[in-house]
Amino acid sequence: MLWTPSTANGTSGSMVDLGVLSGATSQSLGQAINALGQVAGYSAGSSGSRAFLWTPAVPNGSTGVMLDLGDLPGGDATGIAWGINSAGWVVGDSSGSNNAFNSRAFLWTPATGMIDLNTLLDQAYPGWTLGFARGINDAGQITGDAIYDPDGPGPISGYPRGFLLTLTEPIQYPSIPEPGAMAIVALVAAMLFRRRGMV
Asked: How would you label 73-102 residue by residue, b for 16+ Cβ within 10 Å and e otherwise?
């Protein structure tokens, strides 16, 4: 469900059903929302859950399209989206064999699709397995839950740890020209067109 207040920060509003993914049951849960009104969550089915991204037809609109984000290679159609940022980048986890202990944290972007965050780890810090990505901010920093096993499959057991993963390349947001800049561009284009016509 998506609830939208009648006025900004109001206490009354309207609720709309976001629907479910194809092949799912009647259950879907929204876990996070960004400033554009995009919702990330999961839709449950008989074979497990599927992570989704719901995008409104217009920013903060009440109608839109739900997209199945897929799953990681080796997965079994099970995944949950937990967080989203202003660029529409989604984080969550994808499990194998419906087993939460086999979960791997993922990042989904419109350009790359779903990628395993473990493949992005700096190899100077071995022993980490990122299982659940819970949130992402507009700087591309990702938080979540991990297992740290300093000696790998050795005698020391791994133990849970929270993680903060900082992407080394910044997120490139689309730039929107100011109205004044657009007017200047249009004026220059018109002047060039006239000058070419006069030559």
From this structure: eebebbbbbbbbbebebbbbbbbbeeeeeb
Measure the CA–CA gap between 81 and 90, rounded to whole angstroms: 7
Collapsing DSSP states into helix, strand and coil, what is residue 176?
A: coil
Query: Edge-to-edge strand order for the sheet containing 78-84?
Result: 78-84, 90-96, 99-109, 113-116
Q: Which residues of 34-60 are buried (b: 16+ CB within 10 A; e: fewer)?
A: beebbbbbbbbbeebbbbbbbbbeeee
**Which residue from 24, 17, 20 is spatially nearest to 1, judged by alpha carbons?**
17
What pLDDT does residue 75 have?
59
Cα 98–chain centre separation:
21
Sheet containing 159-166: order of strands: 128-136, 141-148, 159-166
Three-class SS of residue 75? Answer: coil
> How many CA atoms lie less than 13 Å away from 194 in the CB half-sphere?
6
pLDDT digits (tens, 9 = 90+) for 94-122: 986 555 457 899 999 999 999 999 998 88
Q: Is the pTM of this model over 0.90?
A: no
User: Over the chain, what is the mean pLDDT?
Assistant: 80
What are residue 66's DSSP bridge partners? 54
| pLDDT tens per residue, range 141-158 | 999 999 998 877 777 778
| 146 phi/psi in degrees, rounded to 5 | -140, 170
